[in-house]
Amino acid sequence: MAALYSTRCCSYSSVRSSPPPQSYPYSPSPSKLGSPHCLTFTSSASKRFLAAKVSLKSQSDSQLNALHMQPQDAAAVANATPVKSDTPLQRLKDEILSVTSSKESEGSVNVDGDGNESTVSITVVGASGDLAKKKIFPALFALYYEDCLPKHFTIYGYARSKMTDAELRNMVSKTLTCRIDKRENCNVKMDEFLGRCFYHPGQYDSQENFAELDKKLKEHEVGRISNRLFYLSIPPNIFVDAVKCASTSASSANGWTRVIVEKPFGRDSESSAALTKSLKQYLTEDQIFRIDHYLGKELVENLSVLRFSNLIFEPLWSRQYIRNVQLIFSEDFGTEGRGGYFDHYGIIRDIMQNHLLQILALFAMETPVSLDAEDIRNEKVKVLRSMRPIQLEDVVIGQYKSHTKGNVKYPAYTDDKTVPKDSLTPTFAAAALFIDNARWDGVPFLMKAGKALHTKRAEIRVQFRHVPGNLYNRNFGTDLDRATNELVIRVQPDEAIYLKINNKVPGLGMKLDRSNLNLHYAARYSKEIPDAYERLLLDAIEGERRLFIRSDELDAAWSLFTPVLKELEETKINPEYYPYGSRGPVGAHYLAARYGVRWGDLAIEQ
Ligand SMILES: NC(=O)C1=CN([C@@H]2O[C@H](COP(=O)(O)OP(=O)(O)OC[C@H]3O[C@@H](n4cnc5c(N)ncnc54)[C@H](OP(=O)(O)O)[C@@H]3O)[C@@H](O)[C@H]2O)C=CC1
Ligand SMILES: O=C1O[C@H](COP(=O)(O)O)[C@@H](O)[C@H](O)[C@H]1O
């Protein structure tokens, strides 16, 4: 369960610009801020308290509300002299006590019921690789810098490459950066952090090597309750071997063991189901944290806040007012260096089936019962399962070709040595999707994703319907589309949420223009936005599953895309070639036009 305002006590939560409202169940006292110990209390106890309060709500709303409970009050209730068992107060007490004790071994507690301290060991499997260097170690350092990691933690790198601890530290140190807005003691913190990083060389399919790792982890855990997180930052063909060895030879004996799995989770329904089945031989669903790093991005996380905590959006969030929704991803670089991987997957599997579809599900879901991970994921699955099968004619694919600009020659996709010269793999795709439910019936959700385009951007564009009988129609000439409102959620770069409205240009005449009501993050918030991997790693440590993909979500996502992917591949559809650095194939415009849509990112004023 997660709260709208972070319950985390580490300064990570300082991203918010104003304090939580008084009615929120827990505001950390200043003395707790920054203390690694309080991670336990804020994230676990207040969540459990909320769970207890929510489940009791139906019994006696007014009486419970009258209690004005805070976690400290909850603790007081829990310690109070027993009262008659049928009163709301006693029931609340029972609930708090039972929820607190039942899942203790699961949460990121630092102290168990008997006062024993626990420790978290994080093993980055594939530590010598690109993702580990680029994202995982820097994110772990950022969490350490922000005092978000538990007091007792150890980080192990594991890979086949021969490296000493010192060499790993040297490698990692080159990738660490300080926050732009927080540099105080950064070098000291870096040294401290590196001192907690170790390396163990080993094969991914060797029980023996993982048993050696286990031995080393135990030395660091010095008898404390051991919680272990394995991050699989390795190619997918070795996921199962690594999971088998980690779970049988290096899982925790007395705490939790969790495994973060990176995408790709298969390449179609069958391979994904096979992967899930294999993983579940060694892990329960609760132990598997399938990462989609787009879910950790600030503005994606904010989608629910925008929808469910502002009166003005949710009433408009349906076919009645929304004409179309656009999910746009573009990168201004190609697949250079990753061609081998990419050619096996293509842009639909790389971006659409996961990142864009996840955003779509969050955007379109019904109001969840609560912010609990299962409630949110239940609603997302419903959306995915309500989606109409994608028709081949609703998909456009493209591949970038070489282009010379000035004196620079940009390569074609197939110029990459690891890509077959005759590859038809799409580096661009656009698709029209539909959700056949009461809320979204008939509303096109247009997706567009591409590599080697003119810009790097990820955004959600919501185009609203025309104002019926608009008194000012004549001010817009024949182009009524220009008069419709558009909400843009710019996920990256330069995060922003802006709403295009019609406005009178000041003056004696009646001239209208379109202006933006603009929430520009850089202007509004002085804090640096944490990288998605920071949020996701912290959630995995805390056992928060809301931003990870459940297996039924994954199945539903693959069921939607597998048939059309198969059709594209079996019929060997030729991609439309577009120059490196361009806006992509014109076919995307024809596709949009078929549904009366104009891509929002083409407008002059964006
Ligand atoms: N890089 C990125 O930006 C992203 C990556 N991912 C996913 O994250 C995972 C890791 O990505 P990335 O770091 O780029 O991967 P790498 O190709 O860099 O591989 C990671 C490590 O795995 C080992 N390895 C590589 N190939 C093999 C092989 N064929 N057999 C056994 N071991 C191998 C290597 O370590 P050693 O030789 O030392 O054992 C390597 O350093 C992958 O699943 C990828 O799809 C997801 C999103 C983005
Ligand atoms: O998962 C992936 O994401 C990256 C884009 O991530 P971003 O956070 O930099 O926007 C993409 O380049 C890569 O192809 C894909 O596998």
Automatic annotation (TrEMBL):
InterPro entries: G6P_DH, G6P_DH_AS, G6P_DH_C, G6P_DH_NAD-bd, NAD(P)-bd_dom_sf
Keyword annotations of the record: Carbohydrate metabolism, Glucose metabolism, NADP, Oxidoreductase
Single GO biological process annotation from the record: glucose metabolic process
Domain called Glucose-6-phosphate dehydrogenase NAD-binding: residue spans: 124-302
Pfam family, one: G6PD_C
Catalyzed reactions per annotation: D-glucose 6-phosphate + NADP(+) = 6-phospho-D-glucono-1,5-lactone + NADPH + H(+)
Pathway the protein takes part in: Carbohydrate degradation; pentose phosphate pathway; D-ribulose 5-phosphate from D-glucose 6-phosphate (oxidative stage): step 1/3
Main enzyme class: oxidoreductase
Keyword flag NADP: yes
Protein's name in the database: Glucose-6-phosphate 1-dehydrogenase
Organism whose genome encodes this protein: Acacia crassicarpa (northern wattle)
